[in-house]
Amino acid sequence: PQIAVCNYTILYSCRAKPIVLKKIHVIPLSIIFFLCLEMKGPSYLSSLSQPEKDVGKDLDLSFLPEETSGNDASNANVTQDSGVFDACRQEESAETDPKKVAMPGASTFCPMTPVTPVAESSGIIPMLQNIVSTVNLACPLDLKSIALQARNAEYNPKRFDAVIMRILEPRTTALIFSSGKMVCTGAKSEELCHLAARKFARVVQKLGFPAKFLDFKIHNMVGSCDVCFPIRLEGLLLDHQQFSSYVPELFPGLIYRMVKPRIVLMIFVSGKVVLTGAKERREIYEAFENIYPILKGFRKQ
Amino acid sequence: MATVGLKCPECGSLDIVDDEHYSQPQLVCADCGAVVSEGLLTTTRSEETQGTDVRYSNSTEVDKKPCRNLINGIHRVRALCRILRLTFLMEETAETHFKQAYEHPNFIRVSLQKKEVLAGCCVLATCRQHSWPIAMGTICCLLEANPRLIGVVYQEMVKTLKIEAPPTSIINLLETHCQAYKLSPQHVHEELSESSKDLTKRAAVLLELAADAWLVTGRQPIPILTASIFLAWQSLKPTQTRLKYTLARFCQMAKVTKSSIAPKRVTELKEVLCKLGQELPWLRGDEVTPQTVIQMVDDILNHRLTLLRRALSSHEEALASESPDTGSVQQQGDHSQPSVPNSGKRSLFEPPSVRYAKIRRVQVPVVEVTGDEEISDSEIDSYIRTPQEIRDYVEAKEALASSDDEL
Fold it and tell me: TFIIB-type domain: which residues (chain B) (predicted)?
């Protein structure tokens, strides 16, 4: 996640202001390392000890200016706090310094979303607990007849004007509206959510409606994990006042609204953390990786 | 027709009209002229200005007169400020907040209940801005409203008005809360009375101890305040009379509202005190029970830092002696995710939610699925009723409906 954030900012600043590029004589050579990493995968980290000779051949970094001085000292853009970057700079500076590399436009540049999160920092991976999605069946539905013909449906128009249908595998619930729109909740992964939505659509089809499966979209993902140590919520509130809201009279947990990624975390004194508001799985992982060092700081020894 | 359903008592006709006899409103039967009912001859000033046929929000008044609910709300704000004995400046600030919030589109159309609660929330926000320690529970008691509703309205109000209202720390709340306890010699018996200052001092130390032992974070403040004041009162003069008093009786005597959670906090606090009391050197390892610990509270609090250190070291020794072989396993456990949280590293004081963790439902391992698999027909058919079932269901519903009609 740190890599991704860093990379985006530098990349976008380069793309947006090509004129300014000239002033930035030194493009941090760690970028080149990042790009290698992204193309070769996380296993690249393990090969740090061996200097890679043919980096330049795989990459196409035409956006970099022709003069790239190996001046490590004047690196203003990258934070120096991770040992990884320092190690790579030594190795890479010798190989990529004199090479003129070309970089295509951003269209061929794929975003940095590692499939498996880099778990070395915390060792804990949040588990997804709930996914909410919607799909359009694209045909008007007769809710009364659905409720009559289906075993797993409940319909109480006085309370709520939709049929509540449940299936056992995967254990999910759907709200089916008369307009043909459907909300599917309760799945523990994106694929299960997709499968469940398809099953609900198939049930509706079998009941005699010409249901389609359009615009399946995941709207919210909820994850939870345990950092395994108690947390001083009052201290966390004092330090991160602009992001946190802790009112013990109303709710026992601290509500932390992270700005990047835009996730809401509920942090409890027992060390359990609930993350919600994500549209993608990696946002949850990123948010947790961001909060873990902060929480470690409030671990009472 | 004035009112639907009104019948003239003289001739029985339904044609009743609104008519006025000079300034007295009357309901008159149009057929026989009998007066069915009449209104008051005089009206109050507020009725004249506000009791009109056209609703105020639909009227075309040019200069907005303050509506009745706004006036009532401002009166309520003033009353609350006077009950809490706030300064004149704070009263004015609270009034301004209330007026601003009331006129804001977020609040102009909410229910009357919320508007009443809004008055209390404005007072609360003002107190917090001026660092006047007031708990949300106090406002709750004064307004006799649902705490959840108060929370919702308070947060919305703070967001709407964009005011900075830093929450008060629990130690500041203690002093104001203590003053509510009527324990001076003029209220209670000589033996049971205690000065507010002594009580606050002792309770503050107990509260600090509770905070260190994870009894305060994440919990409602008022029950723990009550618990610490009760234990302070008992320990300042641990006579038999005082020790016999239960928390409920104490609250009754001090004319303070009872709380159902405070007894649990008392038990937890006594447990912490027992753990520390165990380390007192002159006890020489005797058991310290919650009943006997009150007499020792004085000594415990005076030497609490030393006792804490001793307790921690003896706890570590106990852990080490318990598991000499699993020391190597522990090292491996540090790298991988521990299956049982905090296992092997159980500290002396833990938040109660960790110690008495809820038994979770067994997590079914997530099956690897692509989401595009084939869906078997038999599975889908299992969710659809057979025609026989549908017939049975319809019959049963009709039978139920008919039996309901008979009733």
Answer: 4-37
